[in-house]
């Protein structure tokens, strides 16, 4: 069964229509890359699914059911900016997070922060961008959710650490949870993507398994992306 089904989503800000009939399905155990140029509506779509924005039209279903407030913890959302209070020390920020999301695995949080060498004694606002991104992502991944929405994760993380985290992310996939992530780092993310969604002007221009894109077009997902969006070409 699909974890998520989005159908005919419309969202405008004033007279600017950002999502224009956006439809998408997310199956179980999949990592799906949401790709598209700046302003295509990727963050807006993720925020609608996370329940932070209300679309004017369309439906969003979780395992076939309309999402009720009590279902919200089943979706974990990572924003494109930090939500942890900057004035807190990392140790206290983790405790704060665990209070907010009690389903997170407490032991694993402490272990992972240690393992990733994120300095406990530093304030969140004094972390480097990459350290803050790592901290927020590893906190999010310790939550027990079915769908993880990641808005441009790991953009500020160095390439070696990024690769390591992506490897861990793949290893953590147990067939029950799914990840929908928006990114401009198409080349770096491609190895972990099961599927790619190309979003253009707030609608899905292409949704296919990464393997199929490579087989049909004879090039990588990144190359196909550059072809499609480079010249406003065809999918
Ligand atoms: N709260 C808002 N009020 C007004 N306009 C908004 C708001 N949020 C987003 N927009 C506009 O909607 C459009 C889509 O924004 P969105 O952030 O969804 O794009 P994106 O595909 O995630 O872009 P990027 O890749 O640059 O992050 C943009 O033109 C943006 O200015």
Automatic annotation (TrEMBL):
SUPFAM superfamilies: P-loop containing nucleoside triphosphate hydrolases (SSF52540). One of its GO terms (molecular function) is ATP binding. The keyword Cell division does not apply. InterPro entries: AAA+_ATPase, ABC_transporter-like_ATP-bd, ABC_Transporter_VariousFunc, P-loop_NTPase. Residues 4-226 form the ABC transporter domain. Keywords: ATP-binding, Nucleotide-binding, Transport. This is ABC transporter ATP-binding protein. It comes from Pseudoflavonifractor gallinarum.
